[in-house]
Structures are given as C-alpha cells and as structure tokens.
Write a structure and sequence with these properties.
Elements lengths: L14 E3 L10 H5 L5 E3 L19 E3 L20 E3 L21 E3 L20 E3 L20 E3 L11 H4 L5 E3 L10 H4 L3 H13 L2 E12 L6 H10 L14 E8 L2 E8 L3 H4 L11 E7 L8 H18 L4 E7 L6 H21 L6 E5 L5 H10 L8 E5 H15 L8 E3 H11 L7 H14 L14 E3 L2 H8 L7 H6 L3 H6 L4 H14 L1 E3 H13 L7 H8 L7 H8 L4 E5 L24 E5 L9 H6 L7 E8 L6 H12 L3 E4 L2 E6 L2 E10 L2 E8 L8 H19 L6 E7 L8 E3 L8 H4 L5 E3 L6 E3 L6
Parallel strand pairs: 1-2, 2-3, 3-4, 4-5, 5-6, 6-7, 7-8, 9-11, 9-12, 12-13, 13-14
Antiparallel strand pairs: 9-15, 10-11, 16-17, 18-20, 19-20, 21-25, 21-26, 22-23, 23-24, 24-25, 26-27, 28-29
Organism: Aquarana catesbeiana (American bullfrog)
Protein name: Roc domain-containing protein
Pfam family, one: LRR_8
C-alpha cells in the first residue's frame, strides 16, 4: 500500500497524518523523509516503531492508541521533540536514559498504560510543562517530577496513590492538577476535590500546626421500599432494635451518625421508591460502605424479574455510579422464612450477583454476603478495618479542620441558630469566631473546610450554584426534607390534602387544585402557585418557630428563584417553562431607528418534572412517525442506561432549545425549523438512545444538522462523566433497509475530533456491500 506524503503550504511545519490507517509498520517512504516535523501515527496497530530515530527534525509525535508494549528506545534520538503522546498503549516501564537528550520536550502524555515509575533522567526535561500519567499503576509521585520547575499541568487520576508530597504544591508552580479516583490519605480525596488552592492551603496548615488522624466512614443504605433499611439504620445508630411502621418509612434520605469503637459512621438511609432515586445523584459519593438491604421474604428464586427489582437494579446502578464501592448485602424479614429457605435464597442471590459482575466484566471493589448472618455491627467494623477494602479510611487533617467542625456543630445546636440550619456564610464565620479562638481563620480557609465537610456529608454547601454561594445548609437532613416536598411518590395525594386555610393564604381555590392535579397527571408540570402552596403546607407541619422568612428564601418570587427551585433546576430534577401571551395590546409602537424598550410581562411560571411524565402521543404526532430516509445515530450504553439519566438529558437539552415537546421515553427539539427526535430504549443487552432527524433536501443543510446532533451528544457526554462505570458507543446504522450493520464512530476526544478524523467520501457496508455517502453516516 502506497502513502502519498503531502506538504501543506498553509502549515508552517511539514506534517504527515497517518492516523486511523490500521498500520502495523511505519511506511518506508515516511522514514526516508527526514524533513518531517509533525508525524501522526495514533489509532493504528503498531507494536514497534523501529528506525523512527532517523526523523531528526520531528517536533510532534503522536503514537497514542496503538499496541506498544515497550517504550520505543529510538525516541531518545529525537532531540527536537516538543510533544510526545503515547497514551492508551500497554507500556509497563520506561528505560533509563530515554529523556537525557529530550531537552526541548514540553508536552508528554503517558496516560492509560501500565506504568508504576518514571526514570530519574526525566528531571533533565527542564522545559516540560504538561505531564499526563492518569490511568496507570503509580503508588507514589515519582521524585523526578518534583524537579520539573516549568511544569504547569499534571494529571495523575486513576492510579493507586495514597499520599502526595507537599513540595509538589509548595515548590512547583502548577496551574492545573487532577488526582481523582485514587485512595488518598494525605491529603484526603475530599480535600483534593477542592482543587489546587485547597491542596496548597492544606499543606500550609500542616506546616503551621499539628495534624490529626480521622476515622470516619460514610455508610449508604439502598434497596427497595419497605425492605427494612430504616429499621437497620436506626437500630445500629441507637444500639437497640427500632421497628419502623409503614407510615414512618423514609421519604427521601435520612441521616444519622454514631460511633463503633474508634470509628465514626455517618449513615445515609435512601428511600426505595424510584421517584426518590432521581435525587440520589445529589448525595451519593465514592469511598463509602454500601449496604444493600434485601427482603428475603419477598424474594423468589425462580423469578428473574424479582431478582432485578430487589437486587439487580441497585447493583447495576451502583456499578455505574460508584464502581469502586464496597457492598455489604443484608437480608431482612428472616423471621417470615424457614431457616433452610434463608440459606437457599442467600446463596441464590450471591450467585446471581457474581454472574452479573462476570457478564459485564465488572467488579465491585468487594462484595460481602451477609444475607444469612446476624451480627451486622461486627461485619461492618471488620470491613472498614481491612486496608484492602478501605485503604484511605484513616485520613490526615490539619487540626483546624476538626476544631472548626466542632465549632460548627456547636453553632448548629445553639438555641439562637435556626432549627432548619440554613445560614449565611458570613454569619456562620462570625458565629464560629465568637465561640472559639480561631485567630488564623478567614473566609477562604472556612470555605476550604466547608468543602471538605460537604464532601464527607456533614454539611451541604453548593458553591457552584451562584444563587447559593453564600448559603450553608448545616443540617443536610432538612435540605432533604425540602427536596421531598416536591419529589415524592405521593405528590398527587399531597396536593389533594392541602387545607383550605393554606389555599386562602396564597389566594388560591379548591378549583385550582383540580387544575393543578390535571396538569401534573397529564403534563408532569406544576405551576409556581401550586409549588408555593405545597411547600407552605409542608412547612406548617414541621416543628419550626418561624417559617415566613424561610418560605420566602425557598420559593423566591417572579423575578428571582428561591433556594429550593435553584437546587431542583441545577440538578436537572425539573426545568422552568415560561409561557407568555402572544401579543401585548399595550406594547409601544415599533419605529425603525428608534430605541426599543421591552416591558416585562407577567409570566405564568410552571416547572416540568420529567420523573412524573406519562406516555402521551403529542410528541409522536408532532414528529409524524419515523421515515426510511431519516438520518439517525444510536448511542449504546453498557451495562444499561442509568435510572434518571434520560430525564436529566431531557431537562438539559430542553433548557438549551426552547422549542420542544416531551413525553415519557422521548422528546422532540426544534432548531431553526428543523426537528430532532430523541428516544430511549432501555432493554436488557439493548440499551440505547436514538437521535433521529429528517434527511435534508439541500447539501448545505447537512452541516447545521450534524451540529444539532453533536450538541445533544456533547450534553450526553458531560452527563456520562457522573457515572464513572458507564460505557457508551456511538454508531450509525447502515442506510440499507433491513441491514443490521452499524458504523462505529471514533472516540470523541476534545473539540473538533469528530470533524478532524480521516473520512472518505463514501463508505461501503461490509454486510450488504452497498455504498453510502459519508455525510449520511458521520459529521
């Protein structure tokens, strides 16, 4: 096979692009052209790059996504090399001496390999500014990195790090740093999640004072409704059996804290109804002990759907959301089963869980079967003490973190503090300073500590929501109480139960309630007035002294959303729908050339809650059915589409494109008059989203159409990052009717990557042998 080397006059450097050519060797004519400065060999099948050292003028070399097992020795001769990419290979080690001559190297990407160390001579690369070591096997930061004084970006995510050296942050001048998905003790993951400034602050605090070891574990209870989660949680935290009546079951999430020996446990009891599951992503965090509660009395061994409902659903979503979890299964209602039945059902559940993990080629960090055991407290304590299960359970913290935490607890328990625990940030700082001598505590240090306490679940502070930047929720349980006012399985019943005096106080009538109920059931929407009435009624049932100011803070007004609405919209649980009258008869006359002032009209505010959507025909009718000429792509998900994912994609997409129609399982967007249909299919081994549009009539319309689809794919890609154990693949079906072939897209990595890929004008299907124009398959 011949490759023609083209020199592009518009480029200042001589470039050869052989990406995606399925090469097993570098073509000889490439090796003979010693003038090449940029060589792209990524996404091929290369196992060696012998003789590449003769390309003495090379400045950029891309070898990512090949099949290299050994680091190419010839690279040491490329003395002008400035950028080297070797990510996504299988390299286990880098020989000494490689970097001695690479003094011009500025960019080095080694992610997704099997490296555990770097040679000392890396320190000679004094110009190195970017280094990516993510997805490797490093247990400590190589010392050679600490000498790279020009380094500005360092990425070490997904390794096996437990400790970071202080010199990395106090001696170097890093601008970007990422270390997620490790098992850090010093600084803890919760500190590192705050970014570079917080890590630097952490080490400065350690320099100036004593350190303290913290042993605290977050325990998450999950399982179906009425499985017994709340009974177990309350019994463990209170040290005695605490039976829970059905009417007292958890609505939303219940939080409690207690001590077993030298460990502190923070219990989060999640309600089992699917309506509440849409809020779980707000609070579920990694590095927790997850207790999956299974009702053994309801479990049927010969019913696969029963296993999916009681066990499989929770395991699947846990695999996607927090893939490194430690899972402890606990059986309940054993008193209603025969002893041998308990044993048989326990074994059956364990076998089916292991089969699930094998099927998806996935594994939880550890799976502990406690279905038939009695001493749960003993199992929990033994589990958290095992280093292989919880390598970072003991965290090193500056002493100021603990003293401020105790001060915050003191403020929360004070009679002067509001019962709901919602406090202004500046007010909290002044209260802390009044109670204790924190001479070095300023607002920035308090923010660092609040970030840490937020991530371990003691308080809630959403600094990334602009309207809540200065609001701290000292009692997370109350915040969850607020969430469940609108996100609950019996919302319609709550509307029906609103007393007359509450309606009158909000200038509403019983007739309005009937309209609100109809809107909720038919369109999954609530008017702002209905939300105000619901929240006011719920607040009056709470043991609070004064709810007037709280009500205003939560609901806001027509000009500004309150705290509750801001939270629900931010986490894509609902979206605002603003309806305005088509014409304003009192509007000023429009005169060309004169200033035009728009008067704000009264808006009829409504909020769409996708979790309450029913299957309507409005979207299908407006779409008009699928056509054989439609252009569509499918995004396949493994192991499945996460619960609540499609609803959140719907909210984000519809917020971006204001012309839309929605129903359960599908939504229709319109941009510049062109419709786009997005549908969900979530069947076992066949989970995908379909993005479908009409075929353009004009050639120039293909570009805007693919831009439309890529925008939705971009929104989807960002959502997927919140499920680290979720994998997706984008494919375009063959255009021939009845042909099962699908063309797989290349990886989307960075802006323009899809547009920059090498494409021919036509593509021939390997199954039906028909030729298709590429504009019908890919952007």
């Amino acid at each position: 096979m011949k490759y023609t080397i083209k020199s592009k006059e518009v480029l200042p450097q001589r470039q050869v692009d052989l990406s995606l050519k399925r090469l097993k060797v570098i073509p000889s004519e490439v090796l003979l052209d010693t003038r090449i400065q940029i060589l792209k060999l990524d996404r091929n099948k290369l196992r060696s790059v012998s003789q590449i050292g003769c390309l003495k003028e090379l400045q950029i070399l891309l070898l990512s996504k090949n099949e290299l097992n050994d680091f190419p020795l010839e690279i040491q001769y490329l003395v002008h090399l400035e950028r080297l990419e070797l990510n996504q290979n299988k390299i286990e080690a880098i020989p000494s001496g490689i970097f001695l001559n690479l003094k011009a190297l500025k960019y080095l990407k080694l992610s997704n390999n099997r490296l555990s160390d770097l040679p000392k001579d890396l320190s000679t690369c004094s110009e190195l500014q970017y280094l990516n070591l993510a997805h490797n096997l490093f247990t400590e930061i190589p010392k050679s990195i600490l000498t790279l004084m020009s380094l500005r970006e360092l990425y070490v995510d997904n390794n096996k790090l437990q400790k970071l050296p202080s010199d990395l942050f106090l001696s170097l001048s890093l601008k970007k740093f990422s270390v997620s998905y490790n098992h850090l003790k010093e600084p803890p993951d919760e500190v590192c999640a705050g970014g570079l400034k917080q890590i630097q602050s952490y080490f400065l605090q350690l320099q100036g004072g004593q350190a303290r070891e913290e042993k605290r574990v977050k325990v998450i209870f999950i399982g179906t409704s009425l499985a017994g989660k709340t009974t177990i949680s309350r019994s463990l935290s209170r040290g005695k059996i605490m039976p829970v009546l059905e009417e007292d079951r958890t609505v939303g999430i219940e939080i409690s804290e207690f001590q077993i020996n030298d460990f502190t446990f923070l219990f989060w009891d999640f309600a089992g109804h699917l309506e509440y599951y849409v809020t779980h992503h707000v609070f579920i965090t990694p590095h927790a002990l997850v207790i999956l509660v299974v009702d053994l009395h309801r479990y049927q061994m010969d019913n696969i759907q029963c296993f999916i409902d009681l066990v499989g659903f929770w395991i699947n979503n846990l695999l996607m959301r927090v893939p490194d979890s430690v899972v402890l299964t606990v059986g309940t209602h054993k008193d209603l089963c025969h002893p041998e039945e308990v044993e048989l059902k326990s074994r059956d559940i364990e076998e089916k869980i292991c089969s699930m993990l094998d099927e998806h080629k996935a594994s939880l960090l550890h799976f502990i079967n406690n279905l038939g055991e009695q001493n749960l407290q003993h199992h929990i304590l033994n589990s958290v003490r095992k280093v292989e299960l919880f390598p970072n359970v003991i965290k090193t913290l500056p002493i100021v973190y603990k003293t401020v935490e105790l001060s915050i607890i003191e403020v929360t328990q004070s009679e002067d503090s509001p019962e709901h625990g919602i406090m202004d940030l500046d007010h909290l700082l002044s209260e802390i300073l009044l109670r204790n001598d924190h001479s070095d505590l300023d607002k920035e240090l308090l923010k660092d500590i609040l970030r840490y306490l937020h991530r371990i679940g003691l308080i809630v502070w959403y600094e990334d929501i602009k309207s809540l930047l200065n609001t701290v929720f000292l009692k997370p349980s109350f915040l969850i109480t607020v969430f469940k006012m609108l996100v609950r399985h019996d919302l319609a019943k709550q509307l029906e139960r609103i007393p007359a005096e509450v309606l009158v106080s909000e200038r509403s009538f019983k007739r309005d309630v009937l309209k609100w109920l109809e809107m909720l059931r038919s369109k999954a929407m609530l008017r702002l007035q209905a939300i105000r009435v619901l929240v006011k009624h719920q607040l009056e049932n709470l043991p609070l002294r004064d709810t007037k100011d709280l009500f205003h803070d939560l609901l806001g007004n027509l000009r500004e959303d309150g705290k509750l609405i801001s939270l629900l919209v931010h986490f894509q649980i609902c979206m605002p729908v603003r309806n305005m009258k088509d014409l304003n008869p009192r509007a000023q006359e429009f005169v060309p050339g004169n200033p035009w002032s728009v008067r704000s009209l009264p808006k009829e505010m409504c909020y769409l809650f996708p979790t309450y959507l029913n299957t309507l025909m409005e979207v299908t009718e407006r779409w008009g059915g699928d056509h054989s000429e439609d252009i569509y792509v499918r995004v396949y998900f493994s192991p499945q589409i996460p619960e609540g994912f499609f609803q959140r994609l719907m909210v984000k997409s519809c917020s971006f494109y204001t012309t839309h129609w929605v129903e359960k399982g599908s939504f229709l967007l319109v941009n510049n008059g062109k419709p786009l249909m997005i549908k969900e299919n979530n069947q076992r081994a066949d989970s995908y989203l379909e993005i479908r549009s009409r075929r353009p009539k004009k050639p120039n319309d293909f570009g805007p159409l693919w831009d439309f689809k890529l925008t939705i794919l971009s929104i989807m890609e960002k959502l997927c990052k919140q499920w680290p154990g979720l994998f997706y693949f984008i494919r375009t079906p063959c255009r021939t009717v009845g042909c099962p072939e699908e063309f797989e897209w290349p990886d989307i990595e960075g802006p323009g990557s899809v547009f920059d890929m090498n494409k021919d004008d036509f593509k021939t299907c390997e199954t039906c042998c028909n030729t298709v124009k590429m504009e019908l398959l890919l952007p």
